[in-house]
Each structure stands twice: as C-alpha cells, then as structure tokens.
Task: structure prediction
Amino acid sequence: MTFDSFGFEPSILKGVKDAGYTTPTPVQAATLPIGLKGIDVVGVAQTGTGKTAAFVLPILDYLVKEPSRGKRRPIRALVVAPTRELAIQVTEAAAKYGKHTGLRVATIYGGVGKGKQRTALRNGVDIVVATPGRLLDFLGEGALDLGFVDILVLDEADRMFDMGFVKDVRRIVAAVPEQRQTMLFSATMPPPIQDLAKSILYKPETVEVGERRDPAATVTQRAIRIAEAQKQDLLHHLIDTEDVDRMIVFSRTKYRADRIRKKLDRAGFDAIAIHSNRSQGQRQRALKGFEAGEYQIMVATDIAARGIDVPGVSHVINFDTPNIPEDYIHRIGRTGRAESTGDAISFISAAENANLKAIEKHTGRQIKQVTVDGFDAPTMAEAMANPKKRSNPRGHKSRSKQSGGDGRKGNSRGGNRNSRRG
Ligand code: AMP
Result:
C-alpha cells in the first residue's frame, strides 16, 4: 500500500513525500480511510506508531478541500494534547505535511508568555494544537473562538486523564460545535477513557494497532538486577559497551535526573537533563541539542519526556524502573519508533522488584533478565534495607468519575458549516 491510494489532495501528497514516507504505518493504513470520510475514530495506538499523521492528514485534506471563505480565518480544527512537547511535535508534523497547503497552524501552551500566541490567533489560524490549561485561559479571555471547529482531536487521552485534565477536556469539548468529527487517540483504554469516548464521540470506529498492552514490538527489552549504589557505574559501563546512538535515561525525580547528568558529565559523556523545573526555553534547547547530536544522552523524568519524538534513539534506560506500568510502556516507546528498532534496559534494585512484576503482569510478558560482568544483583542486605515501597500506582479508583454533559449529535462534520462561514 502507498499513500497514493487514499485520494489525498496533491499538495498533501507532496508534503507526505517530502517527509520521506513511502508506506503508511499500520495505524495510518487503518485510520486514514475512516478519518478521511469524516467518521469519528477511537485510535488505540501508542506513540511511535505514526498516529500523528493518522489524524493530521485527514485534517489537512479536509481543510484543503473545504477552505474557509472570507478574510477571517476561523479555527477549523483543534488538537488537544497533554503536554507542551507533544503539542509542539504535532504542530511540527502538521507544518511538515501541510507545507504546500498554505494552511496555518498555531500552538497554544502554558509556561511561556501569552503575547506571541495571542498574536498568532489574532492573525488567523486554521488549526490549533493546544494543551488544556492555556487553551481554557484564552477561551475565558475571549481570545479565541472554537465555534467553527469541524474536527476535534484528543491525543494521548489516557495521559490527559493521568495528569488530571479530564474536566478541562470536557469544558473544551463543550465549547466546540456538536456537529463535528472527533478523533480520540490513546495508548490504553481504561474505563474512564472509555466513558469519555462514549460521551463525546458519535458512532466511532475503533482502530486498534497491536496488542493494547504490548510495548512496541520493535523494542528489545532487558532487565538487570543491580544494587542501587551501582546504578551509575552500570550506566557508564553500558554506554561504553552497547552500540549507543542516542540514549534517553529515565529517573524517578528531577533531583535524581540532575545528579545522574552531573555524574555523566564528570565521566566525560555528553549529557543533558530535561525536566519540568526547567523553563520551556531550556527544555526546547535541550531537546534541539539532543536532536542535533550535540548530546548523546538525555536524562529525563516521565512528564518531561512525554511526547518527545527524536528519531534514532537507540537506547532507553530505566535508571529507575517506574511503579506505573503505563509509564514503562510510554518510556520504552521513545525508542523503536516507526520502522526502527531499539533497546530498553531496566535497572532493578531490590526496592524495584515489585515494579518489574507489575510491568510484567500488565504487559503479559516476562522481561528477559540479564547479568553484566562485574555488576552484582542486590544483596540480601540491600533487599532487607529496602522494603517494598509505593505499590499503589496512580489509581484510577481514587479519581471521581466525570459525568458527561457535552454530548454531541452527529458526525457529518461541518453539516451546517456553510451557515457558519462568512
Ligand atoms: P508518531 O507515532 O506519530 O509520533 O510517529 C512516530 C515517528 O514515525 C515519527 O518520527 C514520524 O515522523 C515517523 N513516521 C510516521 N509515519 C511514517 C511513515 N509512514 N513512514 C515512515 N515514518 C513515519
């Protein structure tokens, strides 16, 4: 199958070809025919599967075929994403594929001044990619109007739920016309996301790529039992002995991320840390430096790494193995993206045994345990000194269920579009 078979506008096909894509990924092959027809979509797909193009291309195609008339450009498509990084990435993807369309896209996210974003909105944009908080800010100020949105996308819905954004998302949905196309993407479909989907999508078709809980099949996973105090040395050893192109090292806290980076630096490795204590500008610079190959290693916390899409990440190291299995899946999804392969290596201290078990239970797969010469498994003494910690993963139970009040009627997007256009 090629991209020629979808009936895309030539300008979009050109953008896709410029991006270097020849064959659609499985999620694209399954989603594009539905999305292009204006039908609602539930996409159960992880990052790295090519899901961004699966919703961006139908948006572009629709907007090119049904252009806004008149001088003012109303916002016709809205993508809501949990993090700034993901929002920026989706924007970059839309700009890349839509390079020849003349469509305008703006990113709206918090943590930076509002001036530039406000100006972009004022000048008129066709597509807005936003994180929930800042979007609601602008809505409250009357700085943007969602009354002309024909296509709404919720990206990484499970993560939005994890980050406590579901109420915000519902408020945003309520500001968008009921007559629209809605696409919801999520790596997992826990009951609260199913509820959300049920209340805001109309007769959706579900596209499920791969096993729901199966970490990207292209990633080779290993676990190494190691004493906490030896983790840093093991990390240095692996960088020296593995065939590392680019590596992301995950730590549990910002403080640990900084400390790991400092020690890497002292040992002569090119490393940078990215976490939420840093300003948006610092994070963007760090990311660009990592992308450009200035730094071989990026040390990150979960939130900061969310949505990062740097091609050619050969290794993901779980310096600290997460107690939330979904985080593990998201982390290892940073490597082995699209068609490439990658390695994920998890350090398991005595205190992290339970985390490993929880991940294996969740994914239904055993992770291969390997030993590294010169590095010992934690001793009984360490095991005794570290009784099991924090075994209660971010529970869905503790959150109250949101009740829906923002239903919708139909999904022939823009059914009454003409009446709205000036
Ligand atoms: P995503 O899951 O949307 O974050 O995409 C993961 C990566 O796959 C990105 O680096 C995309 O540029 C890349 N990609 C998306 N679609 C294709 C395709 N059809 N062929 C090759 N690479 C792709």
